[in-house]
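Colleagues,

For the teaching module next term, I've prepared a clean inverse folding example: a structure given as tokens, and then the sequence designed for it. I'd like students to try predicting residues themselves before seeing the answer, so please don't circulate the second half yet.
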């Protein structure tokens, strides 16, 4: 990424943060306000920001991104795009199954044997098939917490072994 692109993205993120907080809105023309607010990748909660800040391997980040996309899709007030959500869960499940060895390489043995990290994804698929947004939201939060726990376990293993 070029230095100029990095500076522009940081400036845009700063403006978005100020716009969300309502501090900058009156000072900018309407066209600038609308252009800045189009971007939806700003973390909306502290929990989401912390989860994104965990350094993890690419497989875990891909699973996390798929699940966070579902979180965004759940915010649509009318007809929910359950087909897209199902595709996202299947993508995450495929990564979890195909890359199981690299994901669980540094996880304690008692947690590996439980297979806890794919059970939540299976439950999400059931909630999507039932088209129940409330159960889906609760299951999604649980699955994202599980992903964060796995990422933290990977980071802790890395920190303990490479000091």
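(Answer key — instructors only)
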């Amino acid at each position: 990424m070029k230095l100029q692109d990095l500076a522009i993205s940081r400036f845009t993120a700063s403006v978005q943060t100020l716009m969300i907080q309502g501090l900058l809105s009156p000072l900018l023309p309407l066209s600038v306000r609308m252009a800045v607010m189009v971007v939806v990748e700003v973390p909306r909660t502290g929990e989401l920001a912390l989860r994104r800040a965990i350094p993890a391997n690419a497989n875990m980040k891909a699973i996390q991104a798929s699940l966070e996309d579902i979180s965004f899709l759940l915010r649509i007030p009318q007809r929910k795009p359950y087909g897209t959500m199902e595709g996202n869960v299947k993508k995450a499940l495929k990564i979890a199954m195909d890359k199981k060895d690299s994901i669980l390489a540094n996880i304690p043995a008692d947690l590996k044997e439980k297979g806890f990290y794919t059970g939540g994804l299976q439950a999400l698929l059931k909630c999507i098939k039932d088209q129940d947004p409330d159960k889906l939201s609760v299951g999604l939060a649980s699955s994202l917490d599980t992903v964060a726990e796995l990422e933290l376990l990977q980071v802790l293993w890395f920190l303990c072994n490479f000091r």
